[in-house]
Amino acid sequence: MTTHRPWWKTVLGIALTALMLFPVYWMFNVSLTRTRDMRADPPHWFPWDPTIEGYTAALDQQLPALATSLFIGLGTVVLTLLIGLPAGYSLAKLHPPGARTIDFLLLVAQMIPAVVMAMGFYAIYIRLGILNTVWGLIIADSTVAVPFAVLLFRAFIAGIPGDLSAAAQIDGAGNWRTFRSVILPLSRNSIITVALFAFLWAWSDFIFASTLSRNSDAIPITLGIFRYIGNNTTQWNSIMATAVIASIPAAFLLVLAQRFVAAGVTAGAVKD
Amino acid sequence: MSPTRTDAIGALGRTDEAAADIRSAAAPRPHGRRRGQRSRHWAAFAFLAPLIAYLTAFYAYPLYRNIELSVHDYTPRAFVQGNPRFVGLDNYLDIFTNDTFVQALRNTAVFTLGSIALQYALGLALAVFFHRNFRLAGVLRAMFLVPWLLPLIVSASTWSWMLNSENGIVNAALQAFGIGQINWLTSPDTSLLAVTIANIWLGVPFNLVILYAGLQNIPKDLYEAAGLDGATPWQQFWRVTVPLLRPVSAITLLLGLIYTLKVVDIIWIMTTGGPADASTTLAVWSYREAFGSGQPDFSPAAAVGNLLILIALVAGLAYVRLQRREDHR
């Protein structure tokens, strides 16, 4: 439409963003506040006298939990890609019988509440003896990402021109070679999107962690923070410092991979 | 991305003409073609097999176990020994007659409908605002994603501290306006409101992104035409934006409904469903029965969970039907 860009909109936009992000600012502020200023009335709006005692305490106590979460996140990414990529290729290009049924099942799968899955997994894991293990959590966390991954890969791979795989097959490539040498390299962007979301969801998971791994020696960071709140309601600077550290993957995603994020959010919901 | 992709297309594009020649030469042989099709079915199945195995083992089986839990009387000991008593639908009857049920149902309705209505309204207002391009619009819109990307435990614990009765910033700010201390999380009158506010904050980014993408698919010339006809921005919003955004809006609201029904963590972390049952939704109730105390009571929890699936399925079927209808357009 018009090409002039009024400044008042930018000002309003900044004000709205500041309001929206106030809780995030508050998390930073509290994480740097000294313990004795924590209960000041009124609360300090800015950490004039910042301390890093919260961060040293957080790193001291939560480093193993961060490592566990990192491992679980990466494991979930690997499992999700291993299941999602071939399935996406098959559904998009090889026209398997029953493709519509699979589509429907994947949609239904996304509606099942995590608490229900947690109970089912609990009942299964207790028999298999994999309750309180990282492997059990990797499997459970992947159930959030796999339906999303299959639907996204399917949509993306369907957009790769059929001529490409036809040409590869004439050159003697079987389906496996076509998948590996043509489809996979061309799917790089969608692989990044899926990997980022699978990691973030596994990293952020609370329900599976608090049910399937609550008596584990190696607890993920979300459970670490939760226990922190339960045991220790005086040191909110350490709790918020841990929260800041736990938010690093999200910040990373936002800065370095914003276009992949937007692609992931809109995938499946909006078609053009 | 772009160099890799064009290179590949360029390299393979040349062999493509040759491929077409060979294909047309080979086509008249029906026998070979049928064999090709059959092997393609096999390949299709082989690539799909991991997913099918996965869905069976990690979706169907847990769900089956969940139904099994709900029709037996599982005590912690029966869990390990595997000899629970079959009780039919007793668990379901128990939850329907439980005092918590009515309260949880009401809370679920208030929490879910309140959340999605306000998330949608705020998301749409922001989407329209950001749609009119201005300086920094892209950066600010990206910043709005932050609440959605943060781990839930992070946002929930931050909100808990902000809403703290004595030391929270929210009460401190209200005090400046002469409003006395509100016990957001510890009073039965406000705990549901408090978790709903936090949940709305969490959901606005998702609504903003989807509705913004929807707005971008509305052709610009429609607004130009409306503008030439003398329509005010307000009229343009109601006569152009709202009707053309209808399919996207419906899907956004339905997805919001399905997601919000399942919410446990934000409520559990902030109030554990309390005080008493004041902020207990069906999902939280199910979680609390199964995992919330030292005495796990899986059978009623599973029954509540299955009821929740049923509600989500009804919403989900509406979603699928809606998508089908959009596909046929």
From TrEMBL, chain A:
Principal localisation: membrane
InterPro entries per record: BP-dep_ABC_trans_perm, MetI-like, MetI-like_sf
Keywords: Cell membrane, Membrane, Transmembrane, Transmembrane helix, Transport
The keyword Repeat belongs to this UniProt entry's keyword annotation: no
An annotated GO BP: transmembrane transport
Membrane-spanning parts: 7-28, 70-92, 104-128, 134-157, 186-204, 236-257
A Pfam family assignment: BPD_transp_1
Domain of life of the source: Bacteria
ABC transmembrane type-1 domain sequence ranges: 66-257
CDD domains reported for this sequence: TM_PBP2
Localization per Swiss-Prot or TrEMBL: Cell membrane
Topology versus the membrane: Multi-pass membrane protein
PROSITE patterns: ABC_TM1 (PS50928)
Stored SUPFAM superfamilies: MetI-like
UniProt GO cellular component terms: plasma membrane
Keyword Transport in annotation: yes
Family that this chain belongs to: Belongs to the binding-protein-dependent transport system permease family.
Name used for this protein in its record: ABC transporter permease
Higher taxonomy: Bacteria, Bacillati, Actinomycetota, Actinomycetes, Micromonosporales
Automatic annotation (TrEMBL), chain B:
Assigned GO CC terms: plasma membrane
Record keywords, A-Z: Cell membrane, Membrane, Transmembrane, Transmembrane helix, Transport
Parts of the chain that traverse the membrane: 42-61, 109-130, 142-162, 192-215, 237-259, 299-320
Highest taxon listed in the record's lineage: Bacteria
Family of this protein: Belongs to the binding-protein-dependent transport system permease family.
Protein name in the entry: ABC transporter permease
Stored SUPFAM superfamilies: MetI-like
Membrane topology: Multi-pass membrane protein
ABC transmembrane type-1 domain sequence ranges: 105-319
GO biological process: transmembrane transport
Subcellular location: Cell membrane
Gene3D superfamilies: MetI-like
Pfam hit, one: BPD_transp_1
UniProt cross-references to InterPro entries, sorted A to Z: MetI-like, MetI-like_sf
Species assigned in the record: Micromonospora deserti
